[in-house]
Amino acid sequence: MSAETPSKLQKMIKAGHLAVTSEVGPPRSADGEVIEHKAKMIKDYVDAINVTDNQTSVCRLCSLAACIRIKQMGLEPVLQMVTRDRNRIAMQSDILGAASFGINNILCLTGDHQHFGDHATCANVFDLDSTQLALTVKMMRDEGKLLGGHEFEVRPQMFIGAAANPFAGPNVGLRVARLAKKVAAGVQFVQTQCIYNMDTFKTFMKMVVDRGLHEEVAILAGITPMKNVGMAKYMQKRVPGIDVPDSVVQRIGGVPKEKQAEEGINFAVEQIEELKGVEGIMGFHIMAIEWEEKVPEIVERIGLYPRPQLAA
Amino acid sequence: MIKAIPKPMEEIIDNVKDFNKLLIAGCDGCVTVCEAGGLKEAKVLASALRLYFTQGGRQAQVDETSLTRQCEKEYLAQLSDRIDQYDAVVSLACGCGIQYLAEMYDKKIVFPGVDTCFLGVNEERGLYSERCQACGRCILAETGGICPIARCSKRMLNGPCGGSEGGKCEVSKETPCGWELIYERLKTLGQLHRFETPTVPKDWTTSRDGGPRKIVREDLRI
């Protein structure tokens, strides 16, 4: 976690606190109030709020505009940026624009293929991949340089993040090597794919710790509570790169329908408690998909509320 | 080699239905190998069109031929003494051949008879798969002889995305994850170190992003 930035998320991690982040998905309309409403629900319970960038290739209000809104509410946004839809000119331009509003966190992603979204026939870009986007942000921040060679004075002060997916098998070793590559490219924090298969995750973390990677990158464990057994089955069968063991589906499905949401929250809380004991975990990224109102309850139950206040 | 598939019959009929004299021009090159546009396919298409016109009570002439290669002027010239007798030509060559034929006979109406798909290999008869996107700057030395530009749905250059599962691509369970293949091959070759250093943003100017491409080989030109 080399370069220091004004990022509150980075400061929280550096101070040794378990960090808590969550996410807000922008609406499929021009209604900015939705973002404000969702951000207000979680703001006192998290250190930073990710804003997704046309997630699952479904077109939505843009991440940058939503991040600016969140920043203007006095909160700490994490700008998610996928390389699917924009080339290196557009992405560097957006990074400069974000930085001009004091946005200090970026999550560099390649993005789901458009095949999954609401514009399956569109062209994709993929001029860069996530690792190359991280390299680019690092160059802009540390060298004051664009990929094209132009040098500039006012640099984007970005805490650079990326995703890690230990479950996209069959090679856990490849996933560790890929994380190492992202770290070599400048990534300072990662938020993992939603964890349901604890055994695979622990195998991954052991390999990460054995390589000493956990000392170079802050790993935030990804948690998504299940709303009901239908969601568990959907995640198991339909969502690429997510590994939901049968035992999890059986647990959520094993209680009456009206109790399934509560069971999903219980399971998420238990997972976080277990992950607190895993070496190398520096915090949690709680992705409560269209269920933001449950984030406060989860954070309270895992004993991470109130959030520590950083000295100004 | 270039891989193509025959166009649907309805589409071809829709293009040619108002003409009376048609030439179906196959190509003995790539499209013959993938059985989409050689002499055999030209004969089959010509027969089908003759049947279509006869059933509609129309008197139409449909002839077939095949040229050694439609991407070379010398072979296209073989048509020069007979092309004037036709109202239109259906070329079964790849997109290059169709265009070069139209370019050489610029007053003749030329229709495509195949859809040109990709640069690929013959896995089995009737099973062809993509291997190269002709980006103009080969990186196979770094990737164990497997191209991530052609074989990763996101043409990623630093390893697999988080969507691959069980070694398969997130776009289709039928498609192997290109990066899983690269990783396994580098491991077999004892060259995993090649994976460790981040690959910097690629120069795409030699790919289609740089505009229409041309090779000028001064050493070959007279």
Task: Give the secondary structure arrangement, pairings included.
The complex is a heterodimer of chains A (312) and B (222).
Chain A: H1 8-14, E1 19-24, H2 33-42, E2 48-51, H3 63-72, E3 77-82, H4 88-100, E4 105-109, H5 130-143, E5 159-164, H6 172-185, E6 189-194, H7 198-210, E7 218-223, H8 229-238, H9 246-253, H10 260-275, E8 281-286, H11 295-301
Parallel strand pairs in A: 1-2, 1-8, 2-3, 3-4, 4-5, 5-6, 6-7, 7-8
Helix pairs in contact in A: 4-5, 6-7, 8-9
Chain B: E1 2-6, H1 9-16, E2 21-27, H2 30-33, H3 39-55, E3 61-67, H4 73-76, E4 88-91, H5 95-104, E5 109-112, E6 114-124, E7 127-132, H6 148-151, H7 178-188, H8 193-196
Parallel strand pairs in B: 2-3, 2-4, 4-5
Antiparallel strand pairs in B: 1-6, 6-7
How many discrete structural domains of chain B?
A: 2
Widest sheet of chain B: strand order? 3-2-4-5
Broad shape of chain A: globular
The secondary-structure element order of chain B is: EHEHHEHEHEEEHHH
The largest sheet of chain B, given as strand count, sense and whether it forms a barrel, is: 4 strands, parallel
Q: What is the residue-mean pLDDT of chain A, rounded to a whole number?
A: 96
CATH class of the largest domain in chain B: Alpha Beta
CATH architecture of the largest domain in chain B: 3-Layer(aba) Sandwich
Number of strands of chain B: 7
CATH architecture classification of chain A: Alpha-Beta Barrel
The strand line-up of the biggest sheet of chain A is 1-2-3-4-5-6-7-8
Count of separate structural domains of chain A: 1
Q: Output the radius of gyration of chain A.
A: 19 Å
Output the structural class of chain A. Answer: alpha/beta
- Percent in strands of chain A: 5-15%
